[in-house]
Design a protein that fits this description.
Layout: H1 14-17, H2 27-34, H3 59-72, H4 76-85, H5 87-93, H6 104-116, H7 122-133, E1 139-151, H8 159-174, H9 180-186, H10 201-222, H11 230-243, E2 244-246, E3 252-254, E4 272-275, E5 281-292, E6 298-305, H12 314-322, E7 327-334, H13 341-349, E8 353-356, E9 373-375, E10 380-382, E11 388-389, E12 392-396, E13 402-407, H14 410-415, E14 432-436, H15 439-448, H16 452-459, H17 463-476, H18 484-505
Helix pairs in contact: 2-5, 3-18, 4-5, 4-6, 7-18, 8-10, 8-11, 10-11, 17-18
Length: about 500
């Protein structure tokens, strides 16, 4: 269906003179008819000089082409070709039928400008503004949160390749700051992979020792003062520290354990080892998604480090959604990764309620902590046998969270008839119970999740899996660009396309 025709529009637009060739009911037809409601030149006018440069492609045309490229998952070269020959694309872009297309490199420049000027979220935000104007999004919302891995665009490298890669970058950025002797010593490591017997452990170790020695020499000459080489030198020092350790003789060897925030790629240093589950590992970034449970519109997206905790991404997305005029997040549905006490406390401070299943507590067949009566007000813990204790001391759990460790006297536990169900046979001391500062909050959540209404609400959380799958179909499964910031632009465009299509289903666009 042909939408409202702008009286200022050219009568030579493809959507007008070739509308019989535009795929009916498609994403392209809807973008052709209603794209001006989502993408406006004024939002990007400051990216262009008013007095200098050659005549340029209007930013609204550029962004519409980028949305089409996201929808069809095309490369810049293929995107350029389609802007020149594809009737669907020309109609969606709002250009004349004789439009000669957009150069492939122009898209790279446009992306860089959008990221640098922080306007890459404009198309996505415009879809939410349209949803509010159409009365689709309003009032207090029930939302759903989840995360998904994004495989990085950089090549994953081993320790030898990482040190060589950052060594090259540091030397290149240092310019004339290094002595000729250091440059000569580094020379053998700046070309192709050294020819040693990589199957021989001693040969690898000897090569590592020489490589680390050169790296430390370069770092000592670069120094700590700010310079063009500061960033590269910092990454080189980080890799040497994370990936190597001294052997008993003091010579460098590969570290046996994996550092928590280990750099995995010299082509994209922001990539990290990530884990979606115990059996699903990835190298790259993590995508956080917040959706509206009722309309299934994406309310917020973010790209964080691949090894970042899921719970840490919740509050920023809720704050992002609360900035949408006319709506407020009332409830958030999440899985167990979001059920920590700190996350619940932060959500409460933002005026919302978090519903996320609390993990069950086990104790290898013995009484778990949940079988004890814990009175935080009185500072007392009572065991299943009816014995109580007020003896406690400050402590931290295995995750470093502060709390109190309550201790039952050894003589009481020794004489208890239920000891075999409570204390390990080899333990001499009595039973201990750790009580964190969020105990009451977690206990209330564990009790609430037994409510049939709450359980029914939590089952609706599965809706977000369908939305994440849609975003992955739009490219969110793998980063197309190096660096977390450009990857965020990629995800924002995917969310904009997903919302634009969903708005069409919800009837937001009327002729």
């Amino acid at each position: 269906m042909l939408g409202r025709v702008d009286p200022q529009a050219s009568l030579l637009e493809t959507r007008l003179i070739r509308r019989h060739l535009v795929t009916k009911g498609s994403f392209y037809e809807r973008l052709a008819n209603y794209g001006e409601q989502i993408v406006k030149d004024d939002d990007y006018a400051h990216l262009y000089s008013q007095r200098m440069g050659r005549p340029s492609v209007p930013p609204s045309v550029m962004v519409r082409a980028m949305l089409c490229a996201t929808h069809d998952q095309t490369s810049d070269a293929e995107t350029s070709r389609r802007t020149r020959v594809d009737a669907d694309w020309k109609a969606a872009m709002g250009v004349d039928d004789d439009f000669e297309g957009i150069g492939a490199t122009t898209f790279s420049l446009m992306r860089a400008r959008m990221v640098a000027s922080e306007v890459d979220s404009k198309p996505f935000e415009a879809t939410l503004t349209k949803a509010v104007e159409a009365g689709i999004l309003k009032g207090r919302l029930t939302t759903i949160i989840d995360s998904s891995p994004i495989h990085g665009a950089g090549a994953v490298a081993d320790t030898y390749e990482l040190i060589r890669g950052f060594l090259k970058k540091t030397i290149k950025a240092s310019g004339a700051a290094l002595t000729s002797g250091t440059l000569a010593a580094a020379g053998p490591y700046l070309g192709s992979k050294p020819e040693i017997d990589w199957q021989e452990p001693q040969a690898r170790k000897a090569h590592l020792g020489r490589l680390v020695g050169v790296a430390r020499t370069v770092l000592s000459e670069v120094g700590t003062e700010a310079s063009p080489a500061t960033e590269a030198a910092g990454l080189l020092a980080q890799v040497v520290e994370q990936d190597t350790e001294p052997d008993p003789e003091g010579n460098p060897q590969i570290r046996q354990s994996v550092a928590r925030d280990r750099v995995v790629s010299h082509s994209d240093p922001q990539m990290r080892h990530g884990r979606k589950s115990s059996s699903r590992r990835f190298n790259g970034h993590k995508m956080d998604v917040l959706t509206d449970e009722s309309t299934e519109l994406v309310l917020g997206v973010e790209v964080r480090a691949g090894n970042a905790a899921d719970g840490a991404g919740l509050v920023p997305l809720v704050e992002q959604a609360n900035k949408i005029e006319g709506v407020e997040v009332q409830t958030v549905l999440g899985d167990m990764a979001y059920s920590e006490g700190d996350v619940r406390e932060q959500i409460e401070q933002n005026g919302a309620t978090l519903l996320a299943k609390v993990p069950s507590v086990t104790n290898q067949g013995r009484y778990p902590k949940t079988d004890f009566d814990i009175d935080t007000g009185a500072g007392r813990v009572t065991c299943p046998a009816g014995q109580s204790t007020t003896r406690s001391k400050k402590a931290k759990d295995h995750q470093g969270h502060p709390g109190l460790l309550f201790m039952f006297p050894a003589e009481i536990c020794a004489a208890c008839p239920l000891r075999h169900l409570c204390v390990k046979p080899t333990r001499i001391k009595g039973r201990t119970i750790f009580v964190g500062r969020h105990h009451q909050r977690i206990a209330a959540a564990r009790k609430a999740q037994q409510d049939p209404e709450i359980r029914a609400l939590l089952r609706r959380r599965a809706k977000i899996e369908r939305k994440i799958d849609h975003l992955q179909d739009l490219g969110a499964r793998k980063a197309r660009y190096r660096g977390r910031r450009k990857t965020r632009l990629q995800i924002l465009l995917a969310a904009a396309v997903a919302n634009f299509k969903r708005l069409g289903v919800l009837g937001a666009f009327q002729p």
